[in-house]
Write a structure and sequence with these properties.
By secondary structure, this protein is of the alpha+beta class. 43% of the residues lie in helices and 20% in strands.
Length: 256
């Protein structure tokens, strides 16, 4: 769902693309890579991959024992440059603070990046730091209430394309892991104008989210809250959360 503008061949730097591909080849299941494994994961030749890895090692972005390569904390500079420079996280932060204080949960702003949502701003008291996602977390959109809220703004054809052939990870016994179940969550959010998920990632945690648009109607992300379920019903949680989420939504509409 990411739109790319056409790029002239004269402006294309293939080496930069390949270097970023190699950095992105590392993940939780592949924290350490040989040059051969990195080559298979990126589709780049082994010889070229080794040169890129050696260059990244020289620049301080990876370390190596001569056989395996792994990322260094310097890579975090690439991500934190976004948090330090982007207008969006700074604009939403006051609204997240108000939400977390009023509702007693963690508040987030998330954006869509291809198939995932990325949490670019958050706020929460010390009592709820373990509820939900850390800043910068990336999860498949169907697992987060913000992702469902954003998907609900897409056409049915776009949702069908997003769901096609997708595999869903069961984070809890209640996670929606079938295409039909995820589609129902999206359809419900579309009909209601807000998304509601319960125990999708963590048990006894409820999420409520609304999509956020610019004044031109473009969806830029979703604002959400994660709340401990306790003895509160879903209806009561929505009744006390939704007006505050709408207030933040409308305030951000003016800002964007």
């Amino acid at each position: 769902m990411t739109d790319h503008r056409p790029l002239s061949r004269k402006d294309w730097i293939a080496g930069l693309e390949k270097g970023l591909q190699i950095i992105e080849a590392f993940n939780d299941t592949h924290p350490r890579l040989t040059a051969s494994t990195a080559a298979r994961r990126t589709g780049i030749t082994r010889t070229a991959t080794r040169r890129y890895l050696r260059t990244l090692e020289y620049l301080g972005y990876v370390q190596s024992d001569g056989h395996l390569f792994w990322l260094t904390p310097r890579v975090l500079r690439l991500g934190w440059s976004y948090f330090d420079s982007a207008r969006l996280p700074r604009a939403v932060q006051p609204h997240l603070q108000k939400l977390s204080l009023a509702l007693g949960g963690a508040a987030y702003f998330a954006v869509m990046d291809e198939s995932d949502v990325v949490f670019v701003a958050r706020d929460g008291s010390n009592l709820v730091q373990n509820v939900g996602f850390v800043l910068g977390a990336r999860v498949i959109a169907s697992s987060a209430v913000a992702g469902i809220a954003i998907l609900s703004t897409q056409s049915r054809e776009e949702v069908d394309q997003w769901l096609k052939g997708r595999k869903f990870i069961p984070y809890s016994p209640f996670t929606a892991t079938t295409e039909e179940a995820v589609r129902q969550l999206i359809d419900s959010a579309r009909a209601n104008g807000y998304a509601l998920l319960e125990q999708q990632v963590a048990q006894r945690v409820r999420g409520i989210a609304v999509p956020v648009r610019t004044h031109h109607g473009e969806v830029v992300g979703a604002i959400s809250v994660s709340l401990p379920m306790g003895n509160e019903s879903a209806e009561k949680a929505v009744a006390r959360s939704l007006p505050l989420l709408r207030e933040a939504e409308y305030a951000l509409l003016v800002a964007f």
